[in-house]
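Holo prediction — 4'-deoxy-4'-aminopyridoxal-5'-phosphate.
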Amino acid sequence: MSLFSAVEMAPRDPILGLNEQFNADSNPKKVNLGVGVYYDDNGKLPLLQCVQAAEQQMMEKPQARGYLPIDGIAAYDAAVQALVFGAGSEPVKSKRVATVQALGGTGGLKIGADFLKKVSPDAKVLISDPSWENHRALFTQAGFTVESYPYYNAARRGIDFDGMLTALAAAPAGTIVVLHACCHNPTGYDITPAQWDQVVTAIKANKLVPFLDMAYQGFGQGIAEDGAVIGKFLASGLDFFVSTSFSKSFSLYGERVGALSVLCQNADEAARVLSQLKIMIRTNYSNPPTHGGQVVATVLNTPQLRAQWEQELAEMRQRIKLMRQAMVDKLKAAGVSRDMSFIAEQVGMFSYSGLTKPQMERLRSEFGVYGTDTGRMCVAALNSKNIDYVCQAIAKVL
Ligand code: PMP
């Protein structure tokens, strides 16, 4: 008997498994629509001009790499607060937001989850059905019981908003509710501003704890539009959590740049919350890495680079929209009779295509077109060269 002889093999990550299958596929026409990564029209992962310019600036004044403070680069945290809550907004001015630099959006979620487990150990966590796979795993790993609220109705091919509201109304006080601030992953369906108002009202009435996951700010309708939900929660007077990711919006996936912000009632509370978040960080990885945070802080805090970023982000957003509309048109042209216009109404990187598991399997085995078994496809990986092939393949399996 060794220490590890009883250790079980954990199940493979479904998306990474799909990637391995894709890499092993010898079909020259293969297209990977599995992973959540934005590729440009040449099928390349972009390196944004604003990022290159910031790195150039940084190289011109080379800095030694000391430890960062536990909560990260101060200018980075300030830029995140300005982006999420508004520059010079009331909560920022009154210092009632505790913000820490985190290892991507995932890191922000995990620091928040670990902190919540301390302040609210018996609370349950509700995530959307379906949700990003890691939500359930991450909050479970932090020690919570995770359940779900209805979100997507496959039969109606849209959001089950009544089901969602009913679940929120039935949740016990203190329940932590994880919400996708914009660009819902995996479905691509967001609730409307008026529906957000109802969600905020239900959460407030029931004394629930909102945790907003903002992994795609700027990928849906625009930076301000995608962030508008924050204003609604602010106006409600609730305390809430926001995790931020710059993985997609800066195309800095591997740098692990994200943040966690906790909105508190006053500056004193925020200082105490911050001190606790720092313990979570200190005992996990001590302090964050320097490079990615410095790049993002430089871009966000330099007006000219900031403008360039907004322009490049808009280009990514518009290209995704173009691909969505092209998909609707090309599916129709390929003879698909069912109404596929919902693809152009969805937002963000993903589309729940409505295709069944057997249809997705056929797409893979016969055409080398890879999406998840749930029918999720990453429309941000479509381009002018592969879209005809993908649409013809989909038309054949439908
Ligand atoms: N939340 C959601 C909804 C996501 O889709 C993702 C990325 N796929 C994340 C969080 C994590 O982002 P990051 O890569 O920055 O950790």
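READOUT: The mean pLDDT is 97.
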